[in-house]
Design a protein that fits this description.
The strands form three sheets. The chain has a three-stranded mixed beta sheet, with helices on one face. It has a two-stranded antiparallel ribbon with strand order 1-2. 50% of the residues lie in helices and 4% in strands. The radius of gyration is 20 Å and the shape is globular. It is mostly helical. It has 15 helices and seven strands. The chain has a single domain, classed as Glycosyltransferase, CATH 1.50.10.100. Strand 1 (60-61) and strand 2 (63-64) form a beta hairpin. Keywords: Lyase, Signal. InterPro entries: Alginate_lyase_dom, Chondroitin_lyas. It holds the Pfam family Alginate_lyase. This is Alginate lyase domain-containing protein.
Length: 410
C-alpha cells in the first residue's frame, strides 16, 4: 500500500509513513546559497467578508468556489504548473474511479502505527476520496463524484472509533482529506444524502480531535485543529470552528519561536510556569532560539513541515470564512519557512542549529498554500521558499496533504 510523497521519507517518521511512501522521489540537486528572509512588513490582508449572520461559506474547506473556478480555468487552458500537476494527480491510483474503500468499525493504531489495524486503509481512502472529488470538480465526470461518495459512505456506515496511542492523530490524518471531499461533493453534486457523513464527522472524528493534545509534538495538535476546522465548516458548527481556531492561535505561538517571545519558547496551550529544562527538552534540546525555529526542527524537518502545513491549511479555511488568521500567523510562518528552506535545499546548517546536524532531507510537504498566500496574494518576498517549491513541484499526497500544486500553485 502506498501514498505518494513530495520528498524522501524522513528518518524516524512513523512506520506508516514508510508503509505508504510512493510516487516520484525527487533527487537532491545542487545546493543554493542561503537567502535571508525579508523583514516582516504588515500587508493589507486579502480575505473574504464574513457571511451574514455568522453563516459559513460553502464550499469552504481549504478551497472555495472561486479557487476551484480559477484552477479549472488554468488546467483547461494548459497553464503551468497546474496542468502538469493535475495530470500527475489523475494518473495516480487515487485517480481511479473504481477505487474500493476498506472501512472498519474500529481503527487501531499503536506507536508508529504498530499495530496497524486499518490505519493505512483509512488514510489512503481519505486521500482517494479527496482526489476523486477534485477530479470531479475539474472534469465534471460524475464517475469521480460517485467514487468519492462511495468511499465516504462506506466509512460513515461502520466507523465507531480510533484506539491505541496514535488514535487521535490517525483520526486527524483521515478526517482532513475525507471532510474536504465531503464538502466538495455536498456543495455542487445533486443526489447525495450527507446525513450519514455528517453523523460520522460529528460523533466519531470531531470528539477525537477537538480537544487537542497538549504535550505531544506540536504537529499532532496542528493537524487535529485542521481536521476540527474542516469538520466544523461542513457541520456549520460555529462553536467548534471558533474553538479550533483559538487553539491554533495558541499552538502556533508555542510551535514557532520569535525573539519577541523572550528567552524561552512559549509553553504549550494552557500550560504555565513550565520549568526551563522541560521546555528545552520538549524543543528537542535546542537552546539557541532564533526566529523561525520550531518545536520540532531538531526532531526532524519532516515533522516541522507537517506542523507548518497544517497551520497554513487552517489559515486558508479561516480566510474562506472571513477570518484573517493569516495576518496573525504570517510573521511566524514566514520566519519558519525562510529558516528551514535554505537547508532543505542543501545549504550546510550552522553549528547553532541542532548542533549543526538537523535532519534536513525530510522536509515535506511542499509549502504551496503558505507560499501562495504570502507571495501571490500579499506580495511578500520568500525567495528560499519559492525556490524550494519550484524545484520540487508538483506536490504529491500522504495522510492529510494532497495535490497542493493543483489547488494552490502559482
Amino acid at each position: 500500500m502506498r501514498i505518494t510523497r513530495t520528498r524522501a521519507v524522513a528518518v524516524g517518521l512513523v512506520v506508516l509513513l514508510a508503509a505508504i511512501v510512493g510516487g516520484v522521489v525527487v533527487a537532491r540537486q545542487e545546493s543554493r546559497p542561503v537567502i535571508a528572509a525579508e523583514p516582516w512588513e504588515a500587508a493589507a490582508p486579502t480575505v473574504l467578508d464574513p457571511m451574514p449572520g455568522g453563516a459559513f461559506r460553502h464550499p469552504g474547506v481549504l478551497v472555495g468556489a472561486d479557487d476551484l473556478a480559477r484552477v479549472k480555468g488554468e488546467i483547461d487552458g494548459g497553464a503551468e504548473p497546474w496542468a502538469s500537476a493535475f495530470a500527475q494527480m489523475a494518473g495516480t491510483r487515487y485517480g481511479n474511479a473504481d477505487w474500493r474503500p476498506r472501512p472498519r468499525a474500529v481503527v487501531e493504531c499503536g506507536p508508529y502505527s504498530n499495530p496497524d489495524l486499518g490505519c493505512v486503509d483509512e488514510a489512503e481512502d481519505g486521500v482517494a476520496a479527496y482526489t476523486q472529488a477534485l477530479l470531479w470538480q475539474v472534469t465534471g465526470d460524475e464517475r469521480h463524484a460517485r467514487a468519492a461518495i462511495r468511499i465516504i459512505d462506506a466509512w460513515a456506515a461502520v466507523l465507531e472509533r480510533h484506539t491505541n496511542v496514535n488514535g487521535p492523530l490517525q483520526s486527524a490524518w483521515s478526517a482532513v482529506p475525507m471532510v474536504r471531499a465531503a464538502e466538495l461533493i455536498r456543495y455542487g453534486y445533486d443526489g447525495w444524502d450527507p446525513a450519514p457523513a455528517a453523523a460520522m464527522f460529528r460523533e466519531v472524528y470531531l470528539p477525537e480531535v477537538i480537544g487537542g493534545a497538549t504535550w505531544t509534538n506540536g504537529n499532532w495538535e496542528l493537524i487535529m485543529m485542521e481536521a476540527a476546522t474542516g469538520i466544523a465548516v461542513f457541520l456549520d458548527d460555529r462553536a467548534s470552528f471558533d474553538r479550533a481556531v483559538d487553539r491554533l492561535r495558541s499552538r502556533i505561538k508555542a510551535y514557532v519561536y520569535l525573539e519577541s517571545d523572550g528567552p524561552l519558547p512559549v509553553a504549550p496551550p494552557g500550560e504555565t510556569n513550565v520549568p526551563e529544562e522541560r521546555l528545552i527538552s520538549y524543543w528537542h534540546g535546542q537552546r539557541d532560539l532564533r526566529d523561525g525555529v520550531t518545536q520540532e526542527t531538531c526532531r526532524d524537518f519532516g515533522h516541522a513541515g507537517w506542523g507548518l502545513s497544517a497551520a497554513s491549511h487552517v489559515a486558508e479555511t479561516a480566510r474562506l470564512q472571513g477570518v484573517d488568521l493569516w495576518s496573525e500567523i504570517a510573521p511566524r510562518m514566514t520566519a519558519a519557512l525562510e529558516l528551514h528552506m535554505p537547508y532543505a535545499l542543501g545549504e550546510p546548517a550552522p553549528s547553532w542549529l541542532c548542533d549543526g546536524e538537523p535532519d534536513t532531507e525530510s522536509y515535506a510537504p511542499l509549502p504551496e498554500a503558505a507560499r501562495h498566500h504570502l507571495v501571490d496574494r500579499l506580495g511578500l518576498e520568500l525567495p528560499a521558499t519559492t525556490a524550494y517549491v519550484r524545484r520540487y513541484r508538483p506536490a504529491e499526497a500522504a495522510y492529510f496533504f494532497a495535490w497542493e500544486t493543483v489547488t494552490h500553485g502559482g
